[in-house]
Amino acid sequence: MSPPRATERASSTPRTEELPSRQRRKEARPQELLDAALTLFVEKGFAATRAEEVAQRAGVSKGTLYLYYPSKEELFKAVVRHNLAALIAEGKEAVAQFEASTADLLVYLMMTWWQRVGSTPASGIHKVVIAEVRNFPDLAQFYADEVIVPADQLFCSAIERGITRGEFRAVPLHEAAHALMAPMIFLALHRHSVGACPVQGCGTLDPEAMLRTHLDLVLRGLEVREPNGAQA
Amino acid sequence: MSPPRATERASSTPRTEELPSRQRRKEARPQELLDAALTLFVEKGFAATRAEEVAQRAGVSKGTLYLYYPSKEELFKAVVRHNLAALIAEGKEAVAQFEASTADLLVYLMMTWWQRVGSTPASGIHKVVIAEVRNFPDLAQFYADEVIVPADQLFCSAIERGITRGEFRAVPLHEAAHALMAPMIFLALHRHSVGACPVQGCGTLDPEAMLRTHLDLVLRGLEVREPNGAQA
Amino acid sequence: MSPPRATERASSTPRTEELPSRQRRKEARPQELLDAALTLFVEKGFAATRAEEVAQRAGVSKGTLYLYYPSKEELFKAVVRHNLAALIAEGKEAVAQFEASTADLLVYLMMTWWQRVGSTPASGIHKVVIAEVRNFPDLAQFYADEVIVPADQLFCSAIERGITRGEFRAVPLHEAAHALMAPMIFLALHRHSVGACPVQGCGTLDPEAMLRTHLDLVLRGLEVREPNGAQA
Amino acid sequence: MSPPRATERASSTPRTEELPSRQRRKEARPQELLDAALTLFVEKGFAATRAEEVAQRAGVSKGTLYLYYPSKEELFKAVVRHNLAALIAEGKEAVAQFEASTADLLVYLMMTWWQRVGSTPASGIHKVVIAEVRNFPDLAQFYADEVIVPADQLFCSAIERGITRGEFRAVPLHEAAHALMAPMIFLALHRHSVGACPVQGCGTLDPEAMLRTHLDLVLRGLEVREPNGAQA
DNA sequence: CATGAATGAGACTTCATTCAT
DNA sequence: TATGAATGAAGTCTCATTCAT
Questions:
Q1: How far apart are CA D27 and CA C130, in angstroms?
Q2: C208 within domain boundaries
C-alpha cells in the first residue's frame, strides 16, 4: 500500500547535475511531508499517528516537520487541501464546459473521482474524517467548508443540469447526489479499513464492476419514464 | 446522546422481587459497562475514549472495569460482539418467509435495518470499526465473519429472489447489494461524525427522505424494462 | 535552605501505630507537594523548575503531581495562596484589634512579616513573581488580587490609623507603605538571589539590624514635628 | 518598550564619511545585539528569551548571533557587563566634589540614579539578575564585585559624610544605605514585572511622588534631633 | 562573514493499567 | 469484590545550537 519508503530523495532523475542541495530539499519537503502524512493518517488515523513517524517517513527529523506545519492539525488540513480541494475545483470546470449528455457527465465525474481519489490513498481521508472529526471540532468546519459543501454542490449542479435539460426525472437534488456518491465513498472506506486487513472469506468487490453496476442502476433510476409507483 | 448517568440496568432478567441490591447490580454490571462503552466508543472513537470515562458512565470505579474486562481492547471486542451478534440472523427469516414482491422485501429490509440499527447508536460501531480496525488486526476477521459476510449474503439472496422471479433485471449480486446498502450505512456514518458536529452550511440530510429517494432510484434501476444503453 | 529532602514520610513521629497507609499519604500529599514546589520555584524560578523535579522531591511520580494540581501554573497559585494569602488575612485582624501606638503596630507588623515570610523560603515567591510574571499573564492578575492589593491595603490602613490618631504626619499613604515594605522585600529578594550564591566580599546584611535601622529611620520620619523643608 | 525594530546603531563612533555600509554595520553589530538582548532579557527574562528573537530584533539571522557570542549565556554576561560597567564610577566623583549639604547630596544621587538607571531599561538588569543568577553561578561574583559592592560604598560614604559633618545622626552605614536605595530599586523592579502587566486594581505608583515621599521620610529620619524613643 | 534549514534533547501533560486497602 | 491513588511510558511541541551553502 503506497510506495514503500519514499526512496531517500533525488537519486533517480540524474539530469545535468541535480545536486540534492539544501535549496532543492527545501522545495521538495512540503510534498514529501504531505505524502508521508497522508499514508500514515490513512493507515493509523489522525490521533494514532505520531508526528515523529510522519517526519521519519519523510526522511527528516521531528523538528523539521514543525518548520513546515505549525501543528499536527494544520498538517492534516494541508493534506486535505492538497489531495481533495484541487480536484473539486477541476470538477466544476467539467460541469460548466461539458457538452454531451448529463448521463455521460455523471459517468465522467464518477470515473474521474475514482481514478484520482477513490483508487488512491487520498480516499482514505474520508475514513480519517469520519472517524475522528468529533474529537477535533475545528476540523469539522474546515472539512465541511472545503470538501463536503463543494462536492455536494458539484453533484447537485450536475443532476440539476440533467433535470433542466429534460434528461432526468425531477428528484430531490441532495438526496440523489448522496445516493450517487455514497456507494463509491463507502467502497473506498471499506478498502482502507477491513479491506486492508488480511481477512479470509470477504471477497474483495471489484471496484470497476461495482462502479459500472452502480451507475447502471442509478442512471436508469434517473431516466425519464412514465411513473410506476414501486416504492413504500 | 443519552441521559448523562442514568444507570440503565433493569432490561435484564426480572427474577422475582426486583431487588436493586448489590447482588442485582453486580449482575447488571457487564451490560451497563457495555452500554457505556458503546456510547463512548461511538462518540469519541476507541483510542480517544478513556477507560475511566466508561467506568464513570456505568457508575463504577476505574478498577471495577478492569475486573470485568482485562483491557480496553477486550472491552471493545465485547462491545462489538454484544451489539452485532443479535442483529444478524433476523433478516434471514424475513427473506425466507416473505410473500409479497421482492421490491417490497427490499423496502422492508431497508426500513427495518434503519429502524433497528441505522438510527440507533449501534450503527456507530461501523464507524469505530472502519476507523480503527487496522490498529486491531484480530478484530478484522471477527467483523468480516460476523457482520460483513452475513449481511452481504442476506441482501444477495433477496436480490437473487427478485431476478429468479422475473421481477428484476439480471444484475451482479454483490455489486447491487453494495449499491443498495452503502448509502444507508454511509448516512449512518455521517450522522455519527460530521453530522454530529455543529458545522455551518452543511444542512443535515433527512434520513427518511434519503431512504425514499434512494429506494426509488435503485428499485427503478432494478426493474425489468427494455434496455436503453445509458451507461459507460 | 528548607529541610534537605523531605525525609521519605512519616518515619518520624511514631505515636500509636502510624501506618503510612494510602489514606494518610493522600492527606499529606498536598502539603508535601506544596513544600517541594516552593523550594524549587524559589531556587530555580517557575519556568526552569520541571514538574517532574517537584514530584521527585515530594517523593512521588510525575503523574501523581497532576492528580493534585492540574497544571504547573495552578500548582504555583496554590503555593502562593498557602504561603502568603493566609498571613495577610491575619494582619488585618491585628490592625483591627491593636490597642497600643501605631508605631508599635507597624513594628509588630514588620516583625511578624519578617518572622513568618521574610526569613523563610516563602519570601522567595516575590522573586519568582517579579522575575516571571510577564511571561504568565494570568498569574499577574492573580498575584495582584491575592497579594499586592491586600498587602497594600493592610499597610495603608495602618499608616492611616497613625495619621487619624495624630501620631503621624499626613503623608501619601501608598507611597509611605511602599517605603516601609520595599526595603524588607528587597532584602528577601537579595537573600534568594545573589545572597544565596557563594560570593566573596558581599558581607551579608544582618536582617535584624537592617529591620531595626529601617524602622528607626522611617518611624522618625513619620513623627509629627514642626516642618523643616528638608527635601528636594 | 521601544520601537519594534528600528535598528539603533549610529550612536557609536562617527568616523569620517558616515557610511551605513556593510563595514559600518558590521562594527555596530555587537552593540545592536547587546541592545536587542537587553530589551528582550528585561522583558521576558533570560530563559524565556529565544536566541532567534534577539537576532531578529537586531536585524540579523540566528546564525550571525552565534558568530558574535558563542552561547546565550555568554550573551547574557556581555549584556550585564556592557550595561553596568559605565554606570559605576560616576557617582564617586559626585561624592568627592559635592559642596552643599549632605541631604542635598543624597537627593542628587537618588535623582541621578533614577534618571539614568531606574527609569531606563537598564534597571531591568536587576530583575534579570535577581531572577536567574542562581542558575548562572559565575555571574553572581561578577555582579557582586561590579555592582553591589561599589554601589554600597558610594552610599555609605555619602551617609558617613553627613554624620562626620554633624548633619546626620549616627546610624549604621550599610543598613541606612540599604534603606535608602531599596525602595527605588524595588520600584524599578516592580515597573518591569507586575507594573508592566495589564492588571486591574493595582494603581501604578507615581515614581516621582514615591521618590519625594521616600526622601522626605528618610532624610527626616536621619536628621539630628533629640531622640524620642519611638522604635523597637 | 552571513544565512536559515535542520536537529534532537527535553518540557508539560495524559491515561491505561496496577495494586494496597 | 470494589476502590481510587499511584505509576510511567508516550505524545505534542519548543528551541538552543550546528553547519552546508
A1: 35
A2: yes
Q: Are C209 and C227 in contact (CB under 8 A)?
A: no
What beta strand segments (E) does D78-146 contain?
none
**Other C-beta atoms lying within 10 Å of the C-beta of residue A216:** 21
Cell of residue D158, nine digits? 555619602
Would you state the pLDDT for residue B9? 36
C25 pLDDT higher than 90: no
Residue owning grid cell 509611605:
C176
**pLDDT tens for each residue of B179-211:** 888 888 988 998 999 888 888 777 777 888 888
Winning range, highest mean pLDDT, from D55-69, D73-87, D195-209: D55-69
C78 plus C64 within the same structural domain: no
Q: How confident is the model over D138-168, as pLDDT tens digits?
A: 788 888 888 888 889 989 999 999 999 999 9
CB A127 within 8 A of CB A193: yes
Average pLDDT over residues A59-70: 96
Domain end residue (candidates: D70, D98, D130): D70
| pLDDT of C194 higher than 70 | yes
Residue A67: all three cell numbers together: 518548520
Q: How many CB pairs lie under 8 A apart between chains C and D?
A: 233
Residues D24 and D94 in one domain: no
State whether C66 and C78 are in the same domain: no
End residue of a domain, out of D70, D90, D111: D70
Looking at residue A59, which CATH number applies to its domain? Answer: 1.10.10.60
Domain assignment of residue A45, yes or no: yes
The rounded Cα D171 to chain-centroid distance in angstroms is 26
Judge whether B73 is closer than 8 Å to chain A, CB to CB: no
Quote the distance between the C-alpha of residue A114 and its chain's center.
8
Q: Do chains B and C touch (3 or more CB pairs under 8 A)?
A: no
Chains that touch A (3 or more CB pairs under 8 A): B
Instruction: Identify whether residues B206 and B96 lie together within a single domain.
Output: yes
Which B residues between 1 and 30 have a beta carbon under 7 A from any strand F atom?
A: 22, 25-26, 29
Give the closest of C48, C149, C196 to D47, CB-based. Answer: C48
Q: At what angle do helices C149-164 and C86-97 cross, to 10 degrees?
A: 10
CB B10 within 8 A of CB B35: no
* Crossing angle (nearest 10°) for helices A22-44 and A124-132: 60
Residues B163, B110 within the same domain? yes
SS3 D83: helix
**Is A97 found in the same domain as A23?**
no
Domain that holds residue C124: 73-222
> Is any atom of nucleic acid chain F found less than 7 Å from the CB of residue D152?
no
CATH code of the domain containing C124:
1.10.357.10
Let me know if residue C231 belongs to a domain: no
- Residue B212 phi/psi, 5-degree rounding, is -60, -50
Task: Give the distance from residue A226's alpha carbon to the nearest chain B alpha carbon, in angstroms.
Answer: 11
Alpha carbons within 13 angstroms on the beta-carbon side of residue C72 total: 15
Q: What is the pLDDT of residues B153-173, one digit of tens each?
A: 999 999 999 999 999 999 999
Any CB–CB contact under 8 A between A127 and chain B? yes
On whether both A212 and A132 belong to a single domain, the answer is yes
B227 in a structural domain: no
In the predicted structure, residue B101 carries a pLDDT above the cut 70: yes
Rounded to whole angstroms, the distance from the CA of residue A13 to the C1' of nucleotide E14 is: 46
**B102-B103-B108 Cα angle (round to 5):** 90
A2: left (phi over 0), alpha (psi -120 to 50) or beta: left
Count of structural domains, chain C: 2
> Which pLDDT score, from 0 to 100, does residue C13 have?
41
Q: What is the pLDDT of residues A26-55, one digit of tens each?
A: 888 999 999 999 999 999 999 999 999 999
D100 and D165 co-located in one domain: yes
Model confidence at D231, pLDDT cuts 50, 70, 90, reads: very low
